[in-house]
Amino acid sequence: MSTKKNAPSNLGALLNKKDTIIALLMIALIGFLWFETTKFEKVPDLFSNNIPPEMFPQILLIIILGMILIIPFEHIFLKKNGKNIDAGRDKPIEKSTLGTMVILSTIVASSQILGAAITIIAISIALPLYWGEKRLKVLIPYIIGFPLFVIILFNIVLGVHFEPGLLELIKN
User: Fold this and answer.
1) How far is Cα of residue 28 from the mean position of the Cα atoms in its chain?
2) pTM for this model (two decimals)
């Protein structure tokens, strides 16, 4: 004789509760971002050939949504390989992860003022230093090379121009 408490529910066996909550929050974020794409006005030169400005981000959002829809069922795939998805979830989030989130959020939130180039440079400096990278032979080429690569790729190769932010003040 079994009670309802001891019997696993079919829905619980199908969906992982924590993953389903995370997936629902991410779907809400996708919905918000989709709405934001409907407000796009100017078509960048790169996309001016009969492609509406919202199409590329919406394609990315659809791909991300497809991956999000797998998350609540991931435990089923892992069980087949003998893995338990909940095994390490009792550990608290590491301080370095929270610190990284705070640094990224702060710099990205300031990006309208800083401009894209300074934002990329600030992230390229702040994160490796926060993570404890001390090898100057690695750090200096990365701090110079990565932002330079991104700026050249987008501004020159792709023709997508970044908002100048503070660099506009220097220019004038």
Assistant:
1) 15
2) 0.59
